[in-house]
Amino acid sequence: LFFFFFFKQKTAYEILSGLVGSEMCIRDRVSTQSTWGLMQDKVLNKDTIGKNVKNAEYAIRGYIVQRADEITEQMAKGQKMPFKKLLYCNIGNPLSLGQPTYTFDREVVACCMNPILLDSPSISVDAKDRAKTLLKSVDYPHGLGAYTSSPGLKVVRESIKRYIEERDGYPCDINNLFLANGASDAVQTIFTVLLTDPKDGILIPIPQYPLYSALISLLNGTPVPYYLNESKGWALDMEDLSANYKKAQDLGIKVKAIVVINPGNPTGQVMSKKNLEDIAKFCYEHKIIILADEVYQKNIYGSTPFVSMKKVIHDLGAPWNTCELVSFHSTSKGFLGECGLRGGYMELDNIDPYAQGQILKLRTITLCPNTCLLYTSPSPRDLSTSRMPSSA
Q1: DSSP string of 94-118?
Q2: Which of 2, 245, 286, 290 has the most CB atoms around it within 10 Å of its CB?
Q3: What 3-state class would DSSP assign to 296?
Q4: Starting at the edge strand that comes first in sequence, how are the strands of the sheet with 200-206 ordered?
Q5: Tens-digit pLDDT profile for residues 330-373
Q6: Cβ neighbours, 10 Å, residue 3
Q7: Are 265 and 296 within 8 A, CB to CB?
Q8: Bridge partners of 255?
Q9: pTM, rounded to two decimals
C-alpha cells in the first residue's frame, strides 16, 4: 500500500536496495564521518534530542519517501531508471493522484482571501453568496487572514453542527466542536490530554494509520494493539480486543482510550453497526474513551453503509449513550480531497466539563486553526452544482 513502482524487470525492493546501498549509504557514511566532530559541538544533537522524538516512527513520510523524492529528482534531471514512472501511494493524497477539484470550493476560498473577486463576472453567483456570508460573519474588510477564536470560526462550526445533525438525527452542541488543521492536529490535542504516564495505554487497530503509534511514542504512552480479522473483511474481533485489553491490564497498563478507524485506514472496510455497538458496550463496561477516526466516511466502495459512532451510541440508548466519545473528520478525503489546505474538526460527546476546558486551553496555545476551507462544501441547492468538478 505504501508504494507502487512501474518498472520493466527488477522488483521495487531490488531497485531501492541497489540504489540505496550502492550510492546513498556510501555518501551518507562519508558525510557522517566528516561532520561528526562538528556535530558533537552542537547543543541539539543525537545525544541531546528528546528520546521520545527519536522513538517516534512515521513510515509513510519516512526514509522510503525521502529516497523516492531523490529518485524523482534524479529522473527529472535525465537519469535513467529501470522503470518509467514512480507513483506515490504512501498517503491518502487525492489531488496528487488526479482527483478533480471543486470549482465551487476554489471560488469561495479565492473570494474570501481576496474580496475584490466578489465583483468578478468569472465567479459563480452561489460561490459569491457563500463567500459573502462567511466574510460578513467575521467582519474583516480585507478577507480572511486574521486570527479567529481558538475553537474556530463560529459560522463554520454552525455549518458543521447542521451537517452532523442531518447525518445522525441527534443534536450537536456548537460548544463541543473544535476546528483543527486537519484531523491529525485534533488527534494530537486529545492524545496530549490523555497520556500522562508511560503506563497509560491506548488501544489501536492493526493494521493502523501510523499517526497513532507515532503520537503514543512521542507522548511517552503505551500502544495496546488489537487485530482486525482479514478473513472477515477486516472486522473487529471482540474476543481479540478483550484478550489484548486483559494482557495490558496484567502488565499494569491503564487503558484509557480506543482508536476506532471507520472506514478503515489502510484496510478500507466499513464497520457494521453491530460491530460498532459491541465496541460501545465494551467501552462503557471498561470506562474507555472512544476516539472515532471517521475521515473516510465519504469514501464508501462496498454495500455496507457508514454509520457514525455518535449515532451508534445514541441509538443504543441508556446507559451506553453516556459513553465518552471524540469524533474526528477532515476535508482531506471524500470529494474535497483538499489535504494541503489543512481543514478538520473534532466533536466532543459526554466529555467532563473540566477536561473539555483543558482541551480548549490547549487549543488556545496555538491561537486558532486554519480559516479558509471548512465552510465551502457545496450543497445540492447551490446553483453551480453541475459544474463542481473542475478540469484544472
Answers
A1: GGGGTPPPBHHHHHHHHHHH-GGGG
A2: 290
A3: coil
A4: 177-180, 344-349, 325-330, 289-293, 254-261, 200-206, 222-229, 235-236
A5: 877 776 767 667 778 999 999 999 999 999 998 888 887 877 65
A6: 15
A7: yes
A8: 201
A9: 0.78
